[in-house]
Amino acid sequence: MIEDKNPKRTPLSELGEFKLIEHLTNHFKISHKSTVKGIGDDAAVLNYAKKQVVLSTDLLVEGVHFDLSYVPLKHLGYKAVMVNLSDVYAMNAMATQITVSIAVSNRFPLEALEELYAGISTAADLYNVDVIGGDTTSSTSGLIISITALGEVDEDDEVLRSGAKPNDLVVVSGDIGGAYMGLQILEREKEVFKVNPNNQPDLSMYTYIVERQLKPEARKDIVELLKKLEVKPTSMIDISDGLSSEVMHLCKQSNVGVDIYENKIPLDPQVISTCEEFNIDSTTVALNGGEDYELLMTISQEDYDKIKGNPNLTVIGYVTESERGMHLVTRAEEKIPIIAKGWNALKDLP
Amino acid sequence: MIEDKNPKRTPLSELGEFKLIEHLTNHFKISHKSTVKGIGDDAAVLNYAKKQVVLSTDLLVEGVHFDLSYVPLKHLGYKAVMVNLSDVYAMNAMATQITVSIAVSNRFPLEALEELYAGISTAADLYNVDVIGGDTTSSTSGLIISITALGEVDEDDEVLRSGAKPNDLVVVSGDIGGAYMGLQILEREKEVFKVNPNNQPDLSMYTYIVERQLKPEARKDIVELLKKLEVKPTSMIDISDGLSSEVMHLCKQSNVGVDIYENKIPLDPQVISTCEEFNIDSTTVALNGGEDYELLMTISQEDYDKIKGNPNLTVIGYVTESERGMHLVTRAEEKIPIIAKGWNALKDLP
Fold this sequence. Notes:
The structure is a homodimer of 350-residue chains.
Chain A: H1 17-25, E1 35-37, E2 44-46, E3 52-61, H2 73-89, E4 94-104, H3 110-126, E5 130-138, E6 144-153, E7 169-173, H4 178-195, H5 207-214, H6 220-229, E8 235-238, H7 243-254, E9 257-261, H8 269-278, H9 282-288, E10 295-299, H10 304-307, E11 313-320, E12 326-329, E13 335-337
Parallel strand pairs in A: 4-5, 9-12
Antiparallel strand pairs in A: 1-2, 3-6, 4-6, 7-10, 7-11, 8-10, 9-11, 12-13
């Protein structure tokens, strides 16, 4: 699989904590007016003037959330940022700052952390967020990444999970299930590699889904698109754990029911063909596979004309009264209850 | 040492991630106007109106930052919050919100996490901060705690590390070296316990220093006191890594030198007697032992009369021109250069 052929290995103990932080963070530039002071004091200083601030935080643990045998560190850094920005965009806000904390064991040389930070830096640049702080320390075993993202939004534009109303349309951005099938491919190739380390995997048939897994993109563009279309969703959430789990969150917090139409769920052709290859039902993958980082939202029927035909947005169902419950309407027009089987980091505790 | 005699052990896998978060966080109340929405959406929503926001984050790793064989989980939760609030107070700001993320392995039952959160909750109540979010996930080995603290401050009141000027007085709150000596006591008793588990340690002679280690208090009161005395420090930092390391940070970022007087460094009698018992130099402990979470600041000479005689504040030296360097003036009136030997989580990477 992906191998680090870089022969240079600088032990972290050579630098010490302060020099390491300085080395990894000295190239981060500040570009937001709201960032008064970034890295270098006891705390960062921010000033959002009259905007609302949104804040989200995630903890990624090696062996639980990622497997370094097939995830390049640069991709991991990029993805760790995306996971957090996605939550900010799900508030209909623009991400402005992140903090990055890492704990590492001494099997990581400085060069590995540079790779990780290169990914973080690329993500911060592309998505225009300032890196304003963090913590760097040692761990007794693997790598742990903790990112906190901040964003700003006008009070009137903020979208919570709790605003869905009966008759609203359920809309999803992009397509889903890709990240999960990409993971299946990577896991399969890892097994092949274990048996024959000289075997170079041919991933060319799976580029889209592997990229969905390794280098997901948070949907900043969708927040911008909605603004341009003058659509303010009534509720919104990002799809990190799987469609069914996220639908249930929206319904629970909005106190509504939902009908989702199986034949409307947007799937990439590569997801469909790979599901066939693995003999897995693609709807199950869409409902329960996570990590797509698309946005799931509800919009008022009045806004339908504004989003109709937009290739980035797909109507997959509608909101019902709470008593009607949450259902998937299958291709055979059967109604089956939606249950959460999403990815759960605590289910398979080591 | 401290033993958990609670027989109830509910495996975390019984609850799943969402129920666990709900269970641990449902009693957190919101008390700040700036907290618009706490736990329960993709992100928390905050509104600081015209205030500046300060933000600090720390990662605590089992086996690196704490040893559960003598740190009760409740104390650990309390201390984890203190570590972060201390950074906020060091900006002369008032702490308003925290997020708490934890990763745990399955050797921790629910009841253990409840203890941890009880400590977090106690700290949040006492220091009046809202718990507004976090992440809960599994780890492959030990316990990891990541806390981010936010605070607010009027733009004019903010104190950075970089404002010290020659002739300013160097002032420290409380007394220092206690947390380090408390750790020595706990480490010694751990060894005794290993040899004879029935031996109950008598810690009554060491209550103050053991409490400094296990249950430190962030100096919110000092920020309030300074406001009352109408003293705005020219620079400030919290003492987490040891006096010498923090003095060096202030000097480096303010581009000044310093003379610190050994005989002025405030030490508790218990620190002095325990240093004698361990045959360690108490000045070395004050300079290099960390985790006291006192505030180190510089103030203008004009403000001297306002702080003179205050039992919470001790003048330990004065700021000099950068070229003069950083020195400790010993009791024998020798001038020796100050070097950083503070606690460094990366120095002894496992």
